Every structure is written in C-alpha cells, then in structure tokens.
Amino acid sequence: MKRGTAIILSNTMIAEDTYEMILKTEVTDDADCGQFVQVQVPGYYLRRPISIHRILPDHQLSLIYKVVGDGTRVMSEMAEGEALDLFGPLGHGFPVLEEDVVLIGGGVGVPPLAETAARYRSKGRNVTAVLGFNNTAAVFGTEEFRELGCNVIVATMDGSLGIHGTVIDAIKEAGIHPGTVLACGPLPMLRAVAENYNGYLSLEARMACGIGACMGCVVKTPDGGSLRVCKDGPVFRTGEVVL
Ligand SMILES: Cc1cc2nc3c(=O)[nH]c(=O)nc-3n(C[C@H](O)[C@H](O)[C@H](O)COP(=O)(O)OP(=O)(O)OC[C@H]3O[C@@H](n4cnc5c(N)ncnc54)[C@H](O)[C@@H]3O)c2cc1C
Ligand code: FES
C-alpha cells in the first residue's frame, strides 16, 4: 500500500453528476481489479473510498465517481494540475479466474468492473457485461466495455435505453445463463444477484480508517461472525456475508 500525493491529469463529467478523474500516482503499482483507494478531499477529515476504475500506463489511475454529497462535490470542482492526497490500493478485489464470467454493474458500481473486464479479456476469456442505470442520462462506460471485447447488455429502469428494468430482468430477457458472476452496485441489486446466481459481490460500507483497524465497516457472516468490508472485502463470495 502506498500513500502520497497524486496529481490530477483530468477531471471530466461523463454522465449526469458523474465524473472521471485521471491521476498520476504510484498507487497503480501492484493494484488489482476491484480494489479501492482512500481519497483525502481537501477540507474533510474522513477519506472517501473510491474504486479503481482503470490502471493505465505510466502510473495513471482512473476513478469514476458520482457527486452525492459535499466530498464528491469538492472533488468534481478540482482541476487539472491540482494535488490530491490518497492511499491504496486497499482491500481484496475480484479474482481473475480461468473461466468466462458475467459482470453485473449498477450505476457507480460499474467502474471497478472495467479493470476486471480488461484482466479477463487479456486472458482470452469471454466476458458479458450487464450494466444497469436509472436512465439514459446516467449511462456511461458502455463503449469502454465494447472496446474491451465484452458482450454488453444495457438496462435502464425507465426503459429509455436498452432493456427496460433491472439487471436481473436484462439477464433473463437476453437469455443468458450465468456461471460465475462478478457484481458491484447498490445493495438491493446485490441481494437480487445473490438470490439468483453464484459468484462474487463488491460491497460498500461507510468507512473511517479503510485499513481494518477501526471496525467501522463490519458486516455479519451467516454464522454470526464479523468481517470488515475495507480489509476482508470489499469483494466477498455470494453467501459469505449477510446482505
Ligand atoms: C469500497 C468502496 C468503493 C466505492 N467506490 C465508488 C466509486 O467507484 N464511485 C463512486 O461514485 N462511489 C464509490 N463509493 C461510494 C463513495 O465512497 C461515496 O459516494 C462517497 O464517500 C460520498 O462522499 P460525499 O462526501 O460526497 O458524501 P457525504 O454523504 O457527504 O459523505 C459523508 C460521509 O459518509 C461517507 N459515505 C457517504 N456515502 C457513502 C457510501 N455510499 N459508501 C461509503 N461511504 C459513504 C463519506 O465517505 C463521508 O465520510 C465507494 C464506496 C466504497 C465503500
Ligand atoms: S473502515 Fe476501519 S476497519 Fe474498515
């Protein structure tokens, strides 16, 4: 894990309230798909956890984030050339298995699946990416997954683009029968994924330390035990934790 100052190379709006920030940082060394970084937003004490979207050549790191509160709003107002303190890579990400996979992403759960798709495609695996959004204005990343060679299926809740409904509706309507799924998105989506399929889920939790020390991000296991989202996750096997 590395801590240090990253330099913002670009910070661009890519969909409604959604930005891609590309940073120059040593954090890219040893980073895996599905891991995250803790971003120190200027003026705020608690760091904001953001998933690694892509690890690019020349120590460039891409993050995609949605403006939901004060911290992410300040991030969205930062400009090229400014410095941002961050540390990572943190947590256990998605496994890169010797099999074809179905990736399931909802909203800003989509970003960590892009690096994951790249890792699977570089091993020659077939990847289907089922990407769900509320509406067309919220959609991003579909072209990136196509360029990586994935079979891309888009679903919107209002039916304005792709299949009308949830990612589960889209999988069923497209006639896909997933073996292993890798999913990231809002909790109701992850619950529905776990009820229908087997694989791995990336969870969100409010975090303080981000390194396993404060127990602020604990989730329960079915046998009454506890696991930390920041250190033991954020990626867990389906059934490993209570959703
Ligand atoms: C492992 C992990 C990966 C994430 N990856 C992404 C990503 O790639 N893109 C993205 O847009 N968002 C991601 N999130 C959610 C992101 O951390 C929150 O949206 C962000 O912290 C909100 O900060 P804020 O100051 O704008 O909101 P505020 O509501 O003002 O934040 C107040 C506090 O609550 C925390 N908080 C608020 N919402 C969340 C949340 N959903 N999860 C965790 N902490 C939260 C903040 O970090 C802050 O400490 C991720 C969360 C986790 C745990
Ligand atoms: S945030 Fe401190 S243990 Fe996870």
List the helices and strands and how they pair.
Blueprint: E1 2-15, E2 18-24, E3 36-40, E4 48-51, E5 54-56, E6 60-66, H1 70-76, E7 83-90, E8 101-106, H2 111-122, E9 127-133, H3 142-147, E10 151-156, E11 163-164, H4 167-173, E12 180-184, H5 187-196, E13 198-202, E14 218-220, E15 226-228, E16 235-237
Parallel strand pairs: 8-9, 8-12, 9-10, 10-11, 12-13
Antiparallel strand pairs: 1-2, 1-7, 2-6, 3-4, 3-7, 5-6, 13-16, 14-15
The protein binds flavin-adenine dinucleotide and FE2/S2 (inorganic) cluster.
Low-confidence stretches: none
Helix/strand order = EEEEEEHEEHEHEEHEHEEEE
Structural class: alpha/beta
Number of domains: 3
- Assign the CATH architecture of the largest domain: 3-Layer(aba) Sandwich
Terminal residue distance: 28 Å
The coarse silhouette is: globular
| Helical content band | 10-25%
Q: Could you tell me which ligands this complex binds, including any ions or cofactors?
A: flavin-adenine dinucleotide, FE2/S2 (inorganic) cluster
Task: Report the major sheet.
Answer: 7 strands, antiparallel
Main-sheet strand order equals: 4-3-7-1-2-6-5
Task: Please identify which CATH superfamily of the largest domain we are dealing with.
Answer: Nucleotide-binding domain of ferredoxin-NADP reductase (FNR) module
